[in-house]
Amino acid sequence: MLQYLLDIKEGLAIAFAAIRANTMRSVLTTLGIVIGIVSVTLMGTAIEGLNRAFNTSIAKIGADVLYVQKFPWAGQEDWWTLRNRRDIRMEHARAIDRQATLASTVTPIAANIVNVRYGSKVVEGAIVVGTDEQFIETVGVDVVLGRFLTPLEVSGGRPVCVIGSEIAENLFPSENPLGKTVKLNTHTYRVVGVLEKQGSLLGQTMDTRVYVPINRYFKEFRTFRGGIEIWVKAMSLEEVEDTKEEIRGIMRKARRLSPGAKDDFAINQQELLIQTFNAIGGVVAAVGLFITGLSLFVGGIGIMNIMFVSVTERTKEIGIRKAIGAPRRSILIQFLIEAAALCLIGGIIGLIIAFPLSLIIDQVLPTAMPLSIVFIALLVAVLVGIISGFLPAYRASRMDPVEALRYE
Amino acid sequence: MSHLIALKDITKFYQMGDTTVHALDGVSLTIEKNEYLAIMGPSGSGKSTLMNIIGCLDTPTSGIYLFNGVNVSEMNDNQLAKIRNKEIGFVFQTFNLLARSDALHNVELPLIYGGYSSSERKRLAKKALEHVGLADRMHHKPNELSGGQRQRVAIARALVTHPSIILADEPTGNLDTKTGDEIMELFEELHEEGNTIILVTHEEYIAEHAHRIIRIRDGKVEGDEKMSKRQRALAGVSR
Predict the structure, then answer these.
(1) Reported ipTM
(2) Structure pTM?
(3) Which residue, among A7, A23, A324, A403, would best test binding to B if mutated, counting the most B CBs under 10 Å from its CB?
């Protein structure tokens, strides 16, 4: 055991002396490892960013909210079959609202694209959402200015709206939007509230939305088929599955499905999205790391090459060491350490380069170089060194001392 | 059993293309503790091969080599390395020091492979360097030392493990006559201190420093003569 420690200590001293003696060559050789480590860590950072982006997005979809929709979030069903399903209508929302015992809120949602205009200012491609007063509680979002739609406004179909924070910023940069009238396409609405900033969900901003009473929405923004979706918040997180079953029963009855027929609607929940994302994300991560890993492999070949040169150059030194009693193991360890040290230096340089680059990625994806990647990168670098250094080191350890001493 | 080194019918063959070279062809000899002998022979005589075998750098094709009564002719690489480390001190014609290491580290080297602790290594290496008169040159690298000084470092390296034999291969071959004489005086001192010294040379006047000369020709022992004190006096080396 002590002998191993001595070998490693001596090996480190020799390795650094050798690297210093051939600075230029060492730097060039290390470059392969540097590039490999940079690409692998950046890929790791990007993957981490994707995960975080997804997780922050998904967190906005409440885990206790069920989405009764035409299309499932996952599955292999034929798109045309799904598309030709009967639409979900207000009567279904009313049925759930009346009959469900485990639901705390039931909110109908219908959406279309509009231009929002105030004076000469306009927000194009905003989304008008027809909903009811329970929306605010279902989604769990706050009103920063004014109030949300009232039950009376909803049932009466009043021309009032609540706007998202981005619309408020764009149309009312220096005014109080409350009480102002905006035009949704050609229809006039009075602003009664502004929602807090919500950010984006799966790449779609939630802040360019306008919420109006659903009755009025049907009159003025109804799409060709006029289907809606129904968002249901369960009483508690534990009862989500039970709530789902209850809603399923109500929906089947409301849509008069015979007992053997398949559901012609989907009840979606966060869980499904996470499963789908993890499946796709896993493949993306594996492929990405494999491809960037190839550059590390190329770097390893460079290390092996230079270690062969180093061993040949130092044949005489190996002969001297063997003559004065170095066993094979010591010579093997010496050259393995040299290769590992080269790669470790490459790994450290790679991380130093990769860190500022990861900050650039951070501009696009919310990420940070995870500490685990730093350790893994260094470990991988050392492993690459040991693997690619093994063959040259083995050759050195097997040299015949008489031949080696004769070498000039 | 009492011999330090006993060689019996040692042969060494090399395959060189189609021909087999008989570098050693049945060499038998014994060497006792505290002997000072020279192995002499022209180039190609097989004396280097004999030195390699005595120094455990190489194994014979056939024959038995007993070192301190232990059969080393059948040992593997690592066992031989251990014998070289503990029992044999090499001094080479071209010094064979590590160019990037200073004198002290060069002398420490055998101790590293011998598993000595760092402080013990430093202590022993310093002592050995003092012994060869280089107390003030410990931190010089080989290229900062003269040829004679380099050879002294090499001798210190050979001495530092207190080996059973010191094996010197043409130790004065790369030195001028005066420096060479100084090195030979050092060997004489080491011998008087009780070390066993084996000198390999092709130069008669160097061999005559030894107390016994073994002459090798064509892979065979051609002569084995004890040098009397008078003969050595005639050679001008005895004191």
Answers:
(1) 0.92
(2) 0.73
(3) A324
